[in-house]
Design brief:
By secondary structure, the chain is of the alpha/beta class. The chain has 16 helices and 15 strands. It is 41% helix and 15% strand. It binds beta-D-fucopyranose.
């Protein structure tokens, strides 16, 4: 059955600065925490870094042409903070501003809307040297950065997204140390979560201060779809505990102006939450025009039964998870056909989270700001309709179809979904997994930076151009 999307449904593709730009020493840019992290041994599985990545810093024209060929209406990209402010409390770097102005103008002439994320994980190293997200100062600096961007880019930006997946910044950056800055300290993790929330609120105010109420503002969360492995009360409690730290810690303050008391209670041995100052929740709770949801897979959870309930084993169990206070939560191994990331495929999870969020926040538009899958692609010589090599990626095509259909089902069930962004336009630097995992609907040959079509790119082109699935 063919499903037709609403007339102004926005089809887009997504990337992030550190994953695609390269040119880390050009245009006055100074190191971000990812440059530093990549230099440490053992942090990135293939020992690589984003130093060159897809070289989009130099190749954005070609990439925008690809977007036009795909027929997408929007590009979700992020700005590298240390290109704009290379030095601590230093002046705005005009070269950085000019670079993004060129990109944004090229998008405008191509008729492609810019959905701009202010922070997709590449914190300036000089801010990490002062405590990073564990320090309140970073949230204040973020507001200043947001204000500068709003002044510089104005209406060239269609939608402003404050943060991408603060879950990852806080828990992978400061909880299990899998991501930059590679810290493992739950007290800093909780402080980071709060300061990310605060940074979001301060940035929304700063952008509105410059552009007024007409500015469209959003945040992107990777809301986890946790399913209880059974209907036993203890498994449902495990799901609720996981939800609390995965989702409620962002949704509560940003959309409801409160932290669920259970979050504080569950972490009282870790932190007294003294970093929450009077008035913070009002700042964090700003009206938003859109909630971005990144979705890849689901998790089945059950209560962990600890054979040994000593303090040491409780702490060890808790530290098995990037989120604090998870000692009673056991995540089951994923089942079914897994992607190259080892993630399960459950398109119903996307449908369910969209419907749930729409019911919980009526009137708030939602967008799927990332969705996609990694597979071990192989290149075949010849066969692309545009000439040259092609990648036949039936698994990625199937994943794409199933998830776009899940979005259609959610809309049918009443969810207010305004757009869908494929992750990713290009294969790119997949953080701690380096270049070993390919999420692109267009392949990148890292030897020569050639862009190679995949069947999934061709399929997405059909979907975007026809507005149907
Ligand atoms: C998300 C990130 C994005 C990309 C995908 C696969 O968590 O936002 O940058 O790495 O996962």
């Amino acid at each position: 059955m063919t499903y037709t999307f609403p007339p102004n449904f926005l089809w887009g593709v997504a990337t992030a600065s550190y994953q695609v730009e390269g040119a880390i020493q050009e245009g006055g840019r100074t190191p971000s925490i990812w440059d530093t992290f990549c230099e440490q041994t053992g942090t990135i599985s293939d020992g690589s870094s984003g130093a060159v990545a897809c070289d989009q810093y130099h190749r954005y024209i070609e990439d925008i042409e690809l977007m036009q060929e795909l027929g997408v209406g929007a590009y979700r990209m992020s700005i590298s903070w240390s290109r704009i402010f290379p030095e601590y409390q230093g002046p705005v770097n005009d070269e950085g501003v000019q670079h993004y102005l060129r990109v944004l103008r090229a998008l405008r002439s191509a008729g492609i809307k810019a959905v701009v994320t202010l922070y997709h994980w590449d914190l300036p190293q000089y801010l990490q040297d002062r405590g990073g997200w564990a320090s309140r100062e970073t949230a204040v600096a973020f507001a200043q950065y947001a204000q500068v961007l709003a002044r510089a880019f104005g209406d060239l930006v269609d939608t402003w997204t404050t943060l991408n997946e603060p879950w990852c910044s806080a828990y992978l950056g400061y909880g299990n140390g899998m991501h930059a800055p590679g810290i493992r300290d739950y007290e800093q993790t909780l402080a980071a979560a709060h300061h990310l929330n605060l940074a979001h609120g301060l940035a929304v105010k700063a952008i509105r201060g410059v552009l007024g109420q007409n500015a469209k503002i959003s945040v992107t969360l990777n809301l986890q779809v946790n399913r209880a492995a059974s209907d036993k009360p203890e498994d449902i409690a495990a799901k609720q505990r996981a939800d609390l730290f995965a989702n409620e810690i962002w949704l509560g303050p940003m959309l409801e102006g409160r932290y669920d008391d259970k979050i504080m209670q569950a972490t009282k041995e870790i932190s007294d939450w003294g970093f929450v100052q009077q008035g913070d929740l009002e700042i964090i709770h700003q009206s938003l025009d859109n909630l971005g949801i990144n979705y890849y897979s689901t998790a089945y959870v059950k209560q962990r039964h600890m054979s040994d309930s000593s303090e040491a084993s409780r702490i060890a169990a808790s530290h098995a998870n990037p989120m604090p206070a998870q000692e009673y939560v056991e995540v089951l191994p994923p089942t079914g056909q897994l992607t190259a990331m080892g993630w399960n495929q459950e398109p119903e999870g996307l449908r369910d989270i969209l419907v749930e969020m729409s019911q919980r926040y009526p009137g708030l538009a939602l967008a799927v700001t990332e969705n996609g899958s990694a597979w071990d692609d192989e290149v075949e010589s010849g066969g692309s309709p545009f000439g040259g090599e092609i990648v036949h990626d039936p698994e990625r095509v199937a994943y794409l179809d199933a998830h776009v259909r899940a979005v259609a089902e959610a809309i049918d069930l009443g969810a207010a979904v305004s757009g869908y962004f494929a992750w990713s336009l290009l294969d790119n630097f997949e953080w701690s997994l380096g270049y070993s995992k390919r999420f692109g609907i267009i392949r990148v040959d890292y030897e020569n930076q050639e862009r190679i079509w995949k069947d999934s790119g061709l399929r997405y082109r059909e979907i975007a151009r026809s507005n149907t699935v």
